[in-house]
Design brief:
The structure holds two protein chains of two kinds. By secondary structure, chain A is α+β, with helices and mostly antiparallel strands. Chain A has one helix and ten strands. Classes of the chains: A alpha+beta, B mainly alpha. Chains A and B meet through loops of A and helix 8, helix 9 and helix 13 of B.
Chain lengths: ~140, ~375
């Protein structure tokens, strides 16, 4: 073997130092990563009575831990989209004057099909299904 | 060093030494810790006097405001509760029920903003007087790291009252971190303590704000001040070219230090005026299911970046505008950090100083974007 005692000792010490550092850092970094908390998958939520929902308005509905924006168009039809802006995750709002969905943070605009039409948002909003059953509004995931 | 231990303590031998108990206490300490050489060092240290001397005081003001931050922060910690259910209410309790709570909170918020302002002024004055040049490269680098830490203090502290503005600023800010290629997503989850901004984020930001950042900041500040002490104040080029007889200086101790402290007193007065007559607002409690309110904006020192991101289109070629903006700011920050190592010098006979141009463009961009951000 072409290794001197000094080189061997250096290798041993360097390896030991790296191993020691790893054994300290690994638990610390693992501790910092938050554990995944199991969450019940929500498929549908009730969003109130159709009769109580004025046209050309919107409201934010809790869909599990996610906000969903439910809009009633002037035609009386309902539409629901993820309320999280695809730009930087602010929660969007409905602008009755523009008949569009607007993000106040960076001035992003979406039309009533959820498409990003102006400003920085790079993608459309995810759409949710809306059904009215016996006068009650039901928002559910798209099939 | 050794002569300080011979015979009577140096303070006792010096004519103007403090009298009585104070003199004995000084002598007792001096015998053990050799304080006199330190005072002699300060007495012999001299600070250049020229038409740009005023900029020497900016770092000291930032340091003073940091001390105010520490003191007022310690007081706030006594009542603040860092969890989703109680954070907002505890700040309201501080401002409405605790004696002088409104003042302490307002001083903390105002001094934070003034500190950022003075750190920026200090940085740009260092840049424009070329104080970053060899042998002071590491003073610049540690200073830049301190600026980043100050912005980190601002960002984490902003969330702690758990109000609407802070909630969305944190959502946007952490999402920006998430847009960094490759490492972004794990960093975002690490900062937020989960996928979304929740009470877990608040607790983490609190820990970062009052434990992690102060520890790192103190260590780097110590290095920064040590470098300044060892190398002395930088003199602008035109002063360096003067004959030694025409270069004016004053002693650091007591002349410069007393002027420094007089300025600190003035800044303290301004701070108290602002805190008393313009108390910091608390706003509305954060609601994770409410739309971002109209007119939402970050702290003024993030405004130029916020406004830039607002103006970028959804896509630039194949890259998302947001990613382009964040990577662009990251690269500019890196270039700024490394200024001493790539500085472009004026060509012989040239009229334009390239670095002055870079600095002026940088300052004008920041000011223009900030003003625009507040106007629209």
């Amino acid at each position: 073997m072409g290794m001197t005692r000094r080189e061997f000792t250096q290798l041993l010490l360097t390896g030991g130092a790296i191993g020691w550092l790893g054994s300290v850092l690994y638990p610390v970094i693992s501790f910092l990563r938050p554990p995944r908390v199991p969450e019940a998958t929500v498929q549908a939520v009730k969003a109130g009575l159709e009769s109580a929902f004025a046209v050309n308005t919107a409201q934010i509905v809790k869909f599990g831990r996610k906000p969903v924006i439910l809009v009633r168009e002037e035609s009386g039809e309902f539409r629901a989209f993820s309320a999280t802006c695809t730009h930087l995750e602010c929660i969007v709002q409905y602008r009755g004057d523009l008949k569009q969905i607007w993000c106040a943070c960076h001035n992003g605009l979406y039309d009533l099909k959820g498409r990003n039409v102006s400003g920085p948002p790079p993608r459309p909003l995810d759409e949710y299904a809306v059904n009215v059953i016996a006068g009650e509004i039901l928002v559910s995931r798209m099939a | 060093m050794a002569d300080a231990r011979k015979g009577a303590p140096l303070a006792a031998r010096r004519g103007g030494a403090p009298a009585g108990t104070a003199r004995r206490a000084y002598g007792w300490l001096d015998d053990r810790f050799h304080i006199t050489p330190l005072i002699d060092f300060m007495r012999h240290k001299r600070v250049p006097v020229h038409r740009h001397t005023v900029w020497y005081y900016m770092g000291g003001v930032a340091l003073f405001l940091f001390m105010v931050q520490v003191a007022s922060g310690i007081l706030l910690v006594l009542y603040y509760k860092p969890d989703e259910a109680n954070a907002f209410e505890s700040v309201r309790f501080i401002t409405t029920k605790v004696s002088f709570g409104w003042l302490v909170r307002s001083v903390h918020s105002w001094s934070a903003n003034l500190m950022v302002l003075f750190v920026f002024i200090h940085m740009f004055s260092t840049f424009f007087t070329r104080a970053f040049r060899a042998p002071r490269e590491l003073t610049w680098v540690t200073g830049f790291v301190l600026l980043c830490l100050v912005l980190g203090f601002g960002f984490t502290g902003y969330l702690l009252p758990w109000n609407e503005l802070a909630f969305f600023a944190t959502k946007v800010g952490t999402d920006i971190a998430g847009a960094v290629p490759l490492l972004g997503e794990p960093i975002k989850v690490l900062l937020r303590g989960g996928e979304d901004v929740t009470g877990a984020t608040l607790t983490r930001f609190y820990a970062i704000h009052i434990a992690l950042l102060p520890a790192i900041f103190t260590a780097i500040l110590f290095a920064h001040l040590l470098f300044v002490q060892r190398q002395g104040m930088h003199e602008p080029e035109y002063v360096q070219r003067l004959e030694p007889a025409r270069r004016k200086t004053i002693p650091f101790f007591p002349n410069f230090l007393l002027r420094d402290m007089l300025l600190w007193l003035l800044v303290l007065n301004v701070l108290l005026f602002l805190a008393v007559f313009f108390p910091w607002e608390l706003g509305e409690k954060a609601d994770a299911f409410a739309s971002a309110p109209k007119g939402i904006r970050p702290e003024w020192y993030f405004m130029f970046m916020f406004q830039t991101l607002k103006l970028l289109p959804a896509h630039v070629l194949f890259v998302e505008g947001e990613v382009l903006g964040i990577v662009g700011f990251g690269l500019l920050g890196l270039a700024w950090l490394l200024v001493p190592f790539w500085e472009a010098r004026r060509k012989p006979g040239g009229r334009v100083r390239p670095m002055t141009l870079v600095g002026v463009i940088g300052v004008l961009y920041i000011i223009a974007m900030t003003v625009w951000g507040y106007l629209v």
